[in-house]
Write the structure tokens for this entry.
Amino acid sequence: MVPAYNEAENIRDGAIAILKNTPLSVDNLEVLIVDDRSTEDTLAIGQTLQQHLNDPWLKILAGQSILDFRF
């Protein structure tokens, strides 16, 4: 799980590096990138990358404020 806040410049290369350089087999790998409510394009870039790669092990999630949760 990778928290990402305002990482538009790094998120694409970082996600690709994780997917290509992990020693884990695809049966044991899931990469979750959680956009931590960025104020720039981190989420959009991550989602575009996810669509482009079509890699089932890469998931881009939009984080929520604790104030958005209902208990």
About this structure: The helical segments are 11-21, 42-53. The radius of gyration is 13 Å. The first strand starts at residue 2 and ends at 4. The chain has a mean pLDDT of 88.
